[in-house]
Write a structure and sequence with these properties.
The complex is a heterodimer. Chain A is α+β, with helices and mostly antiparallel strands. Helix content of chain A is 52%, strand content 17%. In chain A, the strands form three sheets. A four-stranded mixed sheet of chain A has the order 1-4-5-8, with helices on one face. Chain A has a four-stranded antiparallel sheet with strand order 2-3-7-6, with no helix packed on it. The radius of gyration of chain B is 23 Å and the shape is globular. Classes of the chains: A alpha+beta, B alpha+beta.
């Protein structure tokens, strides 16, 4: 498949760019932060996104979606990376919707997807339990009691967990790991909002004897592990698309500053020490763009090598975003250390995004394992 | 049930014809991977075939017009269109056919003559190249003109009906075996880039001499070439007087793309496979826990680089421009190749340290390692490529 966007995907990207520039520039994130917004994102803006179909790009037409695919979603995510827009696109579209698409029964889909497609229900994934991404380590339990299950355990880094309507919870059952769809208002759930470095939100969620019906099981009991990997691989690639947007924007801002800032009577961008570092970043960013597009296409084509592509992409993109965000602050100099200058927002988003769904070390290790060494 | 009879398209028919012809005409021994220099036929006045198969293969391809399938017939080519040319190359690759001749004439001078040469020059020089009669070498760099190539000083002075050339070139690949040299010469001392011309010189002319340079790899693929009052006919000038820099830049871009792709051909086995075989695994994990992430990082970069080449080609096909991308590819590809050999040497341990001896494959790894150090120097250093990316792509200012 040619590694270029088709006309429809290009149009979606252009319209997303225009919308976000107008409705959600970096300034909007600053405002949410300074006003200590309850949701952490702009609900009204999310409604507008949903009206444009952004909540249902990956939902099939039979459930009220657009069935537009992940290459299209990736273009929107890349543009939100440029503007650092906080929205439920990662938590609800990449994680929650993907989980339902992959694991839910037709009955469950009929009940949930049309509402999600309209942006009127938020679903997120409650998976990690330790301080670093480790989807294999699950201590939360779901013990069967008659026709229902009882959930016990604690989940961390549950994205937008403080405002979600439902959780997809990974828990140990008798014969493996299972996924459950759990209402956030159920008795026994306590949610603690965590405001993160990048001014976005996650939650620590405690499940204490939460009683759930058997009908809330997503997929077959004990068969959750493979689904979790697939959800995560899709989310890793989608998040990488957002990160490519962030690194491109941070880099372009940095290059513009190198041309504008004068010291010793000349633009600092005329110094070779800075030129070569900028040129090297350009090369690394080009590699990241290729990996992301290739991986997004692989999701839509349902390719078998998705795990290895996802790990390659998340590893490379994480390391490059770290480099570009660090160099951005360094090249902006003293002004880069101030809260007034927006380059610092990119540094802070970078570090959170790097950790989310596994950092470079995690994925380099996974890549090697998948390659047989 | 309905059946449809599908007629093969003309292009599919052509592919079948090519396949059948190659099967019938390419000797089995010419379908084996290249093992040493001897397996390459370079042509030229003193060119000799290593064996009968090599000769038969070259002659069959020459008769067919496929030495350079896409050059026009009147210039010794096969006159094939882009699509047909691609099919010939694909089918050759599929069968593992060796190139019938290795030639800087085809690789470098040919494209320049086709673009900048006069009709007379094309009709004279190009058929000699495809017939393997003349072996060419390139005269660009000089002792004091490396990265700053445009400061070259070898002069060609107008003597009315001819030029007289004086000076010295370095890094002239295989000049000691070449018949002719294409040179950048200074025809105006007042202008730097605008005082350079592109000249073709017969190396049999009195006053031309060469001397090989021994490299750190122990081999001598390069020479110094000296010009001492060499008389060159005026019709050997390619393009306009003092406009040779344009041709030089065109060829350098071409060369960069070829060097950037250098990692493609030399070691076929994936790096991690080499690692597994030389270091071993325990419970599926490489025995060297420190080298393991280095190898994984390199492999990711290499795949990402290959995907980026494909993306760029797809963008070009879709009508988006390539720009200064050749500098990016040259820089990144050569740095990757150097990094690979650092890893290979680290994995090789004491075996990688050996320089001689049959059990160590005559130090091939160590010698190849040494050779890769030149990748980021020849054809414009990595630093020069980064300068080009910074200025032409990023638009950063000069001082």
């Amino acid at each position: 498949m040619a590694l270029i966007l088709n006309e429809e995907q290009q149009m979606l990207k252009t319209s997303a760019k225009e919308f976000l520039k107008e409705r959600a520039p970096v300034e909007a994130l600053r405002k949410l932060r300074d006003e200590r917004s309850e949701t952490g994102f702009d609900r009204q803006m999310w409604n507008e996104m949903a009206e444009m179909g952004w909540a249902c790009l990956t939902i099939s037409e039979s459930y009220g979606g657009l069935d537009f695919g992940y290459v299209g979603l990736g273009q929107i995510l890349e543009e939100t990376g440029r503007t650092l827009t906080a929205s439920p696109l990662i938590s609800n579209v990449l994680l929650g919707t993907t989980a339902i698409n992959l694991a839910a029964s037709n009955t469950q889909k009929e009940a949930l997807l049309p509402i999600i497609a309209e942006g009127k229900m938020l679903v997120t994934l409650a998976l990690d339990e330790s301080t670093r991404h480790n989807p294999i380590q699950i201590n939360t339990t779901a013990s069967k009691e008659g026709d229902s299950y009882v959930l016990n355990g604690k989940k961390v880094m549950v994205l937008d967990g403080h405002v979600t309507d439902k959780f997809v919870v990974a828990a140990k059952t008798e014969n493996g790991v299972s996924l459950f769809l759990v209402d956030a208002k159920s008795d026994g759930i306590s949610i603690q909002r965590v405001i993160m470095m990048d001014s976005r939100n996650s939650a620590t969620v405690q499940f204490e004897n939460v009683k759930i019906s058997a009908s809330s099981l997503l997929g077959e009991e004990g068969q959750g592990a493979a689904t979790i990997e697939k959800i995560l691989d899709i989310a890793r690639i989608g998040l990488s698309a957002e990160m490519v947007g962030s690194m491109t924007e941070a880099f372009e801002r940095t290059v513009a500053y190198l041309k504008e800032r004068k010291q010793f009577g000349v633009p600092i961008g005329s110094f070779q020490a800075l030129q070569h570092r900028a040129a090297q970043m350009f090369c690394e960013i080009e590699l990241c763009k290729s990996l992301v597009l290739k991986s997004l296409q692989a999701i839509d084509a349902n390719e078998e090598n998705l795990p290895i592509l996802a790990s390659m992409t998340k590893a490379k993109v994480s390391e490059t975003l770290q480099l570009v965000s660090n160099e951005g602050v360094q090249m902006f100099g003293g002004i880069g250390m101030t809260d007034d200058e927006e380059i610092g927002f990119f540094l802070k988003r970078a570090r959170v995004a790097q950790q989310t769904f596994g950092d470079a070390n995690y994925h380099i290790d996974r890549f090697a394992k998948l390659s047989g060494y | 049930m309905t059946t449809t009879t599908e007629m093969p398209t003309p292009i599919e028919t052509f592919r079948m014809e090519v396949r059948n012809w190659l099967e019938a005409n390419c000797p089995t021994s010419m379908r084996q991977p290249i093992k040493s220099e001897k397996d390459l036929y370079w042509g030229g006045r003193n060119g000799t075939f290593a064996n009968e198969d090599q000769k038969a293969w070259f002659e069959a391809m020459y008769e067919k017009g496929w030495i350079v399938p896409h050059w026009p017939k009147e210039y010794g080519g096969g006159g094939l269109g882009k699509e047909e040319n691609k099919i010939v190359l694909q089918e050759m690759a599929r069968l593992g056919c060796r190139k019938p001749i290795t030639s800087f004439g085809i690789w470098m001078l040919g494209p320049a003559l086709l673009k900048f040469g006069s009709e007379e020059q094309k009709r004279h020089y190009l058929p000699e190249i495809t017939a393997g009669k003349i072996r060419w070498c390139q005269g660009y760099s000089e002792p004091n003109a490396g990265s700053d190539l445009a400061s070259l000083a070898t002069s060609a002075v107008d003597m009315g009906d001819h030029y007289v050339v004086n000076g010295q070139k370095v890094w002239t690949s295989y000049a000691d075996n070449a018949d002719w040299i294409f040179c950048l010469v200074r025809t105006n001392k007042e202008a730097k880039h605008g005082g350079i011309s592109f000249l073709l010189i017969d190396m049999a002319t009195q006053g031309v001499s060469t001397s090989p340079i021994k490299l750190i790899s122990g081999k001598s693929p390069f020479c110094e070439t000296f010009f001492d009052n060499v008389k060159v006919p005026k019709e050997n000038l390619v393009g306009e007087l003092n406009r040779g820099w344009t041709i030089a830049k065109y060829l350098l871009t071409h060369e960069r793309e070829m060097i950037g792709g250098i990692g493609e051909t030399d070691v076929k086995k994936p790096l991690h496979q080499v690692a597994i075989e030389s270091l071993g695994t325990e419970n599926g994990t490489l025995n060297d826990p420190i080298l393991r992430p280095d190898i994984a990082r390199w492999s990711i970069d290499k795949m990402a680089y290959d995907i980026t080449i494909k993306r760029t080609m797809d963008e070009v096909k879709a009508g988006q421009s390539l720009g200064a991308a050749s500098s990016f590819f040259k820089y990144y590809g050569t740095e990757l190749n150097k990094a690979k050999y650092e890893l290979m040497l680290a994995m090789g341990g004491y075996n990688g340290a050996a320089w001689e001896g049959e059990e160590f494959n005559y130090g091939q790894l160590a010698r190849q390692f040494c050779r890769t150090k030149g990748n980021s120097i020849e054809g414009g250093t990595s630093e020069v490529q980064l300068n080009i990316v910074a200025k032409r792509i990023l638009g950063l200012p000069s001082k």
